[in-house]
Amino acid sequence: MASQLETSSAIYVFRKVVRIKSWMPGPYPLLAHCRSKSDDLGEWTMAWNAEQDISFKTNLYGTTLFWCDFKWATDTQTKSQSVPVFNDQDPNNPCNGDKDEKYCNWIVKPDGFYRAAGNQTRFPDDYTFITPWK
């Protein structure tokens, strides 16, 4: 079951949920620190197959932006990447604006970050590769 973080904003428009799932192999956890301009959601640790939800409402101006700094380290390597997990101004984002897709789903894998939109409470099957690790 996913844990959930709730944010606060002054003027709301559409309810959205960013769902992040770790497929990084154990026993090494994925570290994530997510925030927006007005909300710092803190850092959390995710084991393999763990899920984290960020629930929020987009602002009236269409400028809602959440990004996460991810880090994964083993005994022999370290990977890191900053990813905009929700960007209301990105025309290629299937989750933004007034689109019907409530969920913006992310899977973090050893080769990078994948995204899919949807309205279901389960993870969809149609992920698109977005960016590799640095």
Automatic annotation (TrEMBL):
Coiled coil: none
GO biological process: rejection of self pollen
Domain of life: Eukaryota
Keywords: Secreted, Self-incompatibility, Signal
Localization annotation: Secreted
Keyword Transferase: no
GO cellular component: extracellular region
Entry's family note: Belongs to the plant self-incompatibility (S1) protein family.
Protein name as catalogued: S-protein homolog
Organism for this UniProt entry: Cuscuta campestris
